Each structure stands twice: as C-alpha cells, then as structure tokens.
Amino acid sequence: MNCRNANSRRCRPRRYRPRCYRSGRGRQRGAALIVAMLVFALATTLVVAMSSEFTLFMKRGANSFVASQAHAYLRGGEDLAKMVLIQDEEADTQANLQRDDLSELWAGPAVTYPIDEGGFLTGSIQDLSGRLYINSLNASRSSADDGDGGQGPGRGLAITGDGVEAFTTSQRRFLRLLQSFEEPQVSEQDARLILEAIQDWMDNDSNPSDFGAEDSYYIDAEPSYRAANRQFSSVSELRMVAYMTPELYLAVEPYVTVWGDGSLNIQTAPAQVLRTINADDRLEPLSESEGEALVALRGEEGFESVEAFLASPVLANLTVDRNLLSEDTDYFLYTGQVEVADRQATLYSVLRRQGGQVKTLMRSSGAF
Ligand SMILES: [Ca+2]
Ligand SMILES: [Ca+2]
C-alpha cells in the first residue's frame, strides 16, 4: 500500500474496538436463545397444564359415566325388589293370609348378578317392622297405648324414677333394647336417661325434663347444635342425642327404625329385638338364651300366629302386651350394591307396600 499521505484515510490506523463490541452478533444470538428457551418453557408448561386439565376432564367424565351406570343398575335392582314384594302381596291375598315371614321369597339371601361390563349387582330386602320404631318414643301412655302406634301428640312423662306403669309399650321395649347388649352394658337408670333425652329431642319445646337434655345442653357441644324438636328423620340422628355414646349407637342402630307404624313383626324380628318383648311389669330384656329360644321356636316357617308366639314356652307364663305385635309389614329396606369398573356403590331404599303398589319413601347411599 502506498502511504505517502499520512492523513489519507487509508493510512489511518484502525481504531481499537472493544472486544465486546466486536461480539455484538453473538450477544444477539444469546438473547434469542434465551427467548426461545423461555418460549419453549412456557409452551411446555401450557401443554402440561392442558394435558393435566384434559386428563382431569376425562377422569371426571369417566367417573360421572361410571356413577350414572352404577346408579342405573342399583335402580334396576330396586325395581326388581318392588316386583318381588308385589308378587308376595298377591300370593298372600290368594292364600287369604296377610303374613310376612322369613320363608318368603323377598326375605331370601342376597342374590348376586354378574354384569356385562365386569363386576356385579347384588341386593337384599329386610323388613323394617322387625325393628323398634323410635318415633313413637315421645308419646304419652294415653296416646300410645290406645292402638294409634304411639303417634299421638302427647308429651312423654317425666320418667326417671317413675314406675314401670309410666312407660308406653314402645318405651318399655326400647328401654329393654338398651339393656340387652353385652357390650356396652347399659343400666336401667342410664337407659331411662337416654329415653328422657330422646323425648326432649323430639318434643316441640326447649324446656328440659328433669334428667333430659335440650338446647341448653347441646350448646356446650363442640360444635354446638340444638335439639331437633321433631321426629327423627334418620336413625343416625340418635348420635346427636345426649348420653348416646358412639359404642351404644353402633349397637342400637341395626335394631331401630324411623319408618313404620310402631308395630313389631314377630315373624322377622331378630333375637335381639324379640328380647325386648317381656312381661309388662319388667323393664329388663329377656335373656340372650330366651331370645335364641324364640328364634329356634319360630323356625323357618315362622310362628303360627301372634297368639302362638305369646303362648310359646318362653312367654306363656308372662303377662305380655299384645298391642303393637304383628305378623306382617308394609315397610321394607332394599339394600343394593354394585361394582362397575372396579368401583363400588351402595343404595338403601325405604319401600312402602300398600294396595298393590310399592312406593319408594327414601333413597340414600348412607344413613336411612
Ligand atoms: Ca307375605
Ligand atoms: Ca325439645
């Protein structure tokens, strides 16, 4: 190069350029990479979130479908139970004998049906009149023992310390049931307290009886609550009543009901309930062996009649109130269980049979 003119542009020394200035393109490429990574991360997050949402949506849909399918099977089982009960009523009418005992088809063991999708449907029927009806426990003697099933408006008596005659037939049977368990053991005095608390729970005032319990008692509970001041709508309400321990509730629950008219079907009642039928002047239950003897005497075919039941060796020498004893029923419990897609569901249906029809009074997957 000819550099005769030092000022010539060509002859000027090159300017020093900072190194970082020289790598400007590299910086831009780095920034672009970071942006690309951010976009990728964002997109990945969105895809994962959408995938989770979609999976959740699919699971919800599948759960809803399986639940609907399970419910449809259970309702089908309930319809089948109604058909069986209507057939029984027709057979009773033809035989001119209104009677419901454990030899009849409806009372048979649970039948299990396989279902197409895999899994099963099973169902059974129980007589709710084989249990003690607790919604008559609030009735006074004047309204309960005149044959109205204890559903009169009368307030129960203040009973703690009263004699046996103060109690209605239903109340005596309930007091005996409370005392009939090997575990937990309940004394007659404690049984009276529980009965009194039940009466306060059901009556329409907030004035506690001598040993009962009203709002003033339950307000101290954690969380606090109030007495219902109405009849029980579910046996599970008993858990809320004063002095009813969880252990005693579990013992009592299989033998009581809120459905019925107060009559007790001697043909279907289990031994524990039959033990509540004792001499009128006794508040203690029959012994365990006496209860088992009554079940053995009943056999598969049942007692010939209520009179034959009262004349049985266990009861023959006792004065027992014939009132509220029956050998037929209008109230049944259908229990259905189904398994679909490895998921199980249960349905309890309270059924009332009357005049050639069976109506569903309540459906529940839990307490009834
Ligand atoms: Ca029948
Ligand atoms: Ca009350």
Keywords for this entry:
single chain; 368 residues; alpha/beta; Pantoate--beta-alanine Ligase, Chain: A,domain 2; Ribonucleotide Reductase Protein R1, domain 1; five-stranded antiparallel β-sheet; two-stranded parallel ribbon; 10 helices; 9 strands; 37% helix; elongated; binds calcium ion
Task: Please tell me about this protein's structure.
This protein has ten helices and nine strands. The chain has two domains: 57-128 and 331-364, GSPII I/J protein-like (Pantoate--beta-alanine Ligase, Chain: A,domain 2, 2-Layer Sandwich), CATH 3.30.1300; 131-326, Orthogonal Bundle (Ribonucleotide Reductase Protein R1, domain 1). The chain is α/β, with parallel strands linked by helices and 368 residues long. Helices cover 37% and strands 14% of the residues. α4 packs across α5. The protein has helices at 19-22, 24-94, 141-144, 169-178, 188-202, 215-218, 246-252, 271-274, 288-298, 306-310; strands at 111-114, 120-127, 132-133, 256-257, 264-265, 325-326, 331-340, 343-354, 357-364. Bound molecules: calcium ion (2 copies). One calcium ion is lined by residues 200, 203, 205-206, 214, 227, 229. Residues 200, 203, 205-206, 214, 227, 229 line the site of one calcium ion (CA).
